[in-house]
Structure formats: C-alpha cells, structure tokens
Specification:
Elements lengths: L4 H14 L11 H4 L11 E3 L1 H14 L2 H4 L3 E3 L16 E7 L4 E7 L3 E7 L1 E7 L2 E6 L3 E4 L5 E5 L5 E7 L1 H7 L4 E3 L13 H6 L19 E2 L1 H14 L8 E4 L14 E7 L9 E2 L3 E7 L1 E6 L2 E6 L3 E4 L5 E5 L3 E7 L1 H6 L5 E2 L1
Antiparallel strand pairs: 1-19, 2-3, 3-10, 4-9, 4-11, 5-8, 5-10, 6-7, 6-9, 8-12, 13-14, 14-21, 15-22, 16-19, 16-21, 17-18, 17-20
The structure holds fe (ii) ion (FE2).
Length: 344
C-alpha cells in the first residue's frame, strides 16, 4: 500500500517505539502468517541406503551404541537445516546396533516408532517386555515408557526411528530421563502383548490407559499377508495401490496419538495418479524398485531407500517391480484438529 512519505515515516517511528515493548504490527506480516496454501521450507529428498549404511558403519567404528546412547544418523530435511527435523512436525533417523551392543535404557515424552530396515534378531524392551525384531516389523515405543535396545544376533541391525520431536518441542512438553541400569528387568515373556492384543481379541476386563496401541510389534509377515490378500480381492486404488493403515485395536485409531503409520503395495508396472495431502510423509522402501515424482522432481528408489514428501507436494508413485512402501506422518494429529486435507 502506498502511503504519503510522512505517514510511512510516522509508521516506521511507531514500530520503532513499540519494539522494546514487544509489540508488532500484524499488517506487516499477515500475508506470511496466514498463507493461501502450506508454504513451509520443507523439501522433497531421498536417502540412498547403501550410502547411509556406509556412514553408519564408519560411525560404528568410532563410537559405541553405549557411548552414543543412540547411534543414529538423522535424516534432516535439506530445507530445514539445523532443525534435526524431516518435516516441520517429525523427526527421522537410521539407527545402528552392532552385535553384542546395548543402547541403554531411557524414557522421554516423545513417542517413537521403529521400522526395521536391515537385520534380524536384535530386541527392543519396553516396560519389561522384549520383542525380537525382524525386517519390515513396525515396533512402538509409547510416550514416557522405559526402553532399551540390544543386539544378541551376529549381524548389524539398522532400523528407522520415527519420532514426534518437533511436535513435542512446539508444545514445549518434552521430558526425558536415563534409567538406573543399562538394561531394564524383563518382567513379561516375549509375545505377551501379541497374545493379549494382536489377534482381534482383547483381555475381557482390559481398559486402555493411554491412546497408544497396546500392540508392541506389528510383524511384517502378517502385514505382507494382509497386503497380498487385499491385492487378490480387487483393483488397486488409483493413487496408493493397495494401502493399509496400522490400527490401535482399542479405538480403531492410529497406533500412536501423534503419528500414523501405513504400508502399501504397488503392483508391478503400477503408475499412480497424482495425489497430495497436508501430512508431510516419510517413506521407507521395504521391497522392490520404482520412482516417485514429488512436486515435479523424480526420485528413483529401491529396497531400504528413504524419501520424504512435503505437505501438499504432489506425488506420483510408479513401480518397476512389485514394491512395498512403509510410511509415517502426523495425519492423526491433523485429523483430530480438523486440519487434514487431501486432493486426488
Ligand atoms: Fe529413546
């Protein structure tokens, strides 16, 4: 807006006078605060597994999981440097545990998901129960629960950590503490949570005490079987192929209050229709090869690669061979807040 010179000068003087009193004119910043569409600096990006693995192994030569507390390489969004965030609400990293190592017990208010990328046989312990992890398994660490990891197998294990760190930081609701012992006492046999909660049955008098799913490990074998069954049952969705969401059996919602998790099967030769949604999404390639065009930029991917689709960026998935993609996003939060949108 054009103002007479003296009026503009008087406004500048007014701003100057107000600034020490922590007062600012909204009309100068309104357009950048309330935008016609999402406009965060988040960019699309891909991390090739062979490269990340090499850096992880080199870090493994230099620092133990114990000394690092968690030996993780953060997948930081190139548009959000210095934030340790992969989207404005989510954190992602690839964690390495070598044979014989223990990542010591701690707890925090941030919720975590583990998605197993390579290896088999390491365990995660949460609240006295251990689960042995295999490739493609999705394992939950609920908010404020003690957890430690160990690798009793003979091979390195790598998994994707997904956490709601930026979201918790936004609320300034972060708490964390270290356990007295590296490894927590095991008080329940392996498979307890699976037996109690993961068969379409629940203990008769059980009442949930939190929004997080009581299922500890959603094993890949079962997820893959469900996808295969779905693929036999009918045609794929034009945008997603065959896509399932992981579910909390206690309430039908997402497994965690802050993060939704998904697994999709793209048949060989699948060429998806364009899709976008407001939940910036992190993908882990479980199997197969293909490419995703995100906001006009094409990323070729194969097994164990990772990539991120920013909020409202148009994405088109194509599969050269049958492909399986795991993904997670903040969709349950946006849905709860009546913010989530999609466009096909
Ligand atoms: Fe942790």
């Amino acid at each position: 807006m054009a103002l007479p010179n003296n009026a503009q000068q008087q406004l500048e003087n007014l701003y100057e006078e107000m600034r020490p009193r922590s007062l600012y004119p909204l009309w100068e910043v309104l357009a950048s605060l309330v935008t016609p569409k999402p406009n965060a600096a988040t960019r699309s990006a891909k991390w090739q597994f062979a490269e990340v693995r090499d850096y992880l192994m080199r870090a493994g030569d230099l620092i133990s999981a114990h000394d690092a507390e968690r030996r993780v390489l953060i997948l930081e969004n190139p548009g959000l440097p210095g934030t340790s965030a992969i989207t404005t609400s989510l954190y992602a990293g690839l964690q390495l545990i070598l044979p014989g190592e223990v990542a010591p017990s701690h707890r925090h208010t941030q919720s975590a998901l583990r998605f197993i990328v390579e290896g088999e046989g390491a365990y995660t312990a949460v609240d006295g129960e251990r689960t042995i992890m295999r490739e493609g398994d999705f394992v939950i660490t609920p908010t404020w629960t003690w957890h430690d990891h160990g690798n009793d197998s003979s091979k390195p294990m790598v998994w994707l950590d997904g956490l709601d760190i930026p979201m918790v930081a936004m609320f300034n609701a972060g708490f964390a503490e270290n356990g007295a012992e590296d490894e927590q006492a095991v008080t329940a046999p392996e498979g307890t949570s699976d037996a109690k909660y993961a068969s379409g049955l629940l203990p008769v008098d059980w009442k949930p005490t939190r929004q997080t799913s009581p299922i500890f490990n959603y094993p890949y074998a079962r997820t893959r079987e469900a996808l295969a069954g779905l693929a036999k049952a009918g045609p794929p969705d034009a945008c997603h192929g065959y896509k399932l969401r992981y579910v909390n059996p206690a309430n039908g919602g997402a497994p965690m209050a802050t993060m939704g998790t998904f697994m999709q099967l793209l048949p060989k030769g699948f060429a998806g229709a364009p899709y976008r949604s407001t939940d910036g999404t992190v993908f882990s390639v479980v199997d197969g090869e293909g490419e995703s065009t995100i906001g006009g930029k094409t990323f070729r991917w194969k097994k164990r690669d990772h990539f991120v689709v920013p909020s409202w960026a148009k994405v088109v998935h194509k599969a050269a061979s049958e492909a399986v993609l795991f993904s997670f996003s903040d969709r349950p939060v946006q849905e709860r807040l009546d913010l989530w949108r999609e466009q096909r």
